[in-house]
């Protein structure tokens, strides 16, 4: 395991690199916005038999340069950063994996720069922000009731979060929402293992601006590289219908739905998750 600060032109991005240098890099994009690479803890490490993991802290987040100009904190710029990271690594051929908001970034890059990445994995994302519109309605039926009120309050505080400690509290309060079973006994351990350095200023900005406002559904036909779309059957944030629309729109895309997962299939169904992702990468990068 090594770490690097990568020059992407106007700022530097932190990367945790895991696995043999001779393997093709898989640039891994975390969720949030405002989280960092610790979101994945060591859940993806078994993939280092196939790829070199490049666990990235995206622009102005985690251990990346926090001084990146605020007007560059956009979905489009973070998508451009992916290719810049590959160039900084000297990687002519690479794949991309994005989860949640990171999936928005991976999909945006695949649309804007067709063929730049050899393959893309879009995990629990959406091709259009309209798929997020019914989250408030879903919250109204979320059980148990005490967790419903807890999640409701945490969302309300995103737009005013000031400190990393407050961000950490928000993450703890929201985590049950992201699991198919909101009382999954693995939640406390995952929360402990995935805690990282949070960026409250990034969360404040994006929570007030539609979390990046992704709108690429009409352009999915322009994607030319292999794409694997992953979804959790019980995902309340990025519903499987959104993943189905992505897979239907991208020529030749593969879709896999984890039937016992919510928004966190790499935690909820780790063995199946690794098998599906590894198989795709072996085929796409051969």
Could you walk me through the main structural features you see in this protein, from its secondary elements to its overall organization?
- The protein is an alpha/beta fold.
- Helix content is 37%, strand content 15%.
- The protein has 10 helices and 8 strands.
- It has helices at residues 75-89, 101-112, 135-139, 145-157, 164-178, 187-194, 200-207, 240-249, 265-268, 270-284; strands spanning 2-7, 12-18, 25-29, 52-56, 95-99, 119-123, 227-232, 254-258.
- It has an 8-stranded mixed β-sheet with strand order 1-2-4-3-5-6-7-8, sandwiched between helices.
- α1 (75-89) crosses α2 (101-112) and α4 (145-157) packs antiparallel against α5.
List keywords for this structure.
286 residues, alpha/beta, 10 helices, 8 strands, 37% helix
Which percent range describes the beta-strand content?
15-25%
H/I helix tally: 10
Distance between the termini: 24 Å
Numbering strands along the chain, what is their spatial order in the largest sheet?
A: 1-2-4-3-5-6-7-8
Instruction: Please tell me how large the radius of gyration is.
Output: 17 Å
Approximate shape: globular
Low-confidence stretches: none
- DSSP strand count: 8
Percentage of residues in helical conformation: 25-40%
**Structural class by sheet pairing and helices:** alpha/beta
The overall pLDDT average reads 97
Element string (H = helix, E = strand): EEEEHEHEHHHHHEHEHH
Taking the sheet with the most strands, its summary is:
8 strands, mixed
């Amino acid at each position: 395991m090594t770490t690097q600060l990568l020059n992407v032109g106007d700022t530097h991005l932190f990367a945790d690199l895991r696995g043999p240098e001779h393997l093709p890099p898989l640039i891994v994009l975390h969720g949030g916005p405002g989280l960092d690479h610790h979101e994945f803890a060591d859940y993806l490490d078994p993939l280092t038999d196939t790829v070199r993991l490049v666990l990235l802290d995206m622009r102005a987040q985690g251990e990346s340069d926090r001084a990146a100009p605020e007007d560059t904190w956009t979905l489009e710029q973070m998508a451009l950063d992916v290719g810049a990271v590959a160039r900084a690594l000297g990687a002519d051929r690479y794949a991309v994996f994005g989860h949640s908001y990171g999936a928005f970034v991976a999909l945006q890059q695949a649309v804007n720069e067709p063929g730049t990445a050899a393959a893309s994995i879009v995990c629990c994302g959406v091709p259009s922000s309209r798929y997020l519109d019914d989250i408030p309605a879903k919250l109204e039926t979320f059980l148990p009731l005490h967790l419903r009120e807890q999640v409701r309050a945490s969302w309300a505080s995103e737009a005013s979060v000031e400190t990393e400690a407050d961000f950490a509290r928000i993450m703890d309060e929201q985590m049950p929402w992201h699991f198919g079973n909101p009382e999954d006994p693995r939640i406390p351990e995952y929360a402990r293992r995935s805690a990282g350095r949070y960026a409250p200023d990034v969360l404040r900005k994006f929570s007030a601006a539609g979390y990046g406002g992704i709108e690429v559904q009409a352009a999915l036909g322009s994607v030319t590289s292999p794409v694997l779309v992953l979804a959790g059957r019980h995902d309340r944030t990025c519903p499987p219908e959104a993943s189905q629309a992505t897979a239907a729109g991208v020529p030749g895309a593969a879709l896999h739905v984890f039937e016992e997962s919510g928004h966190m299939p790499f935690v909820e169904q780790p063995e199946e998750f690794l098998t599906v992702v590894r198989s795709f990468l072996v085929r796409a990068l051969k």
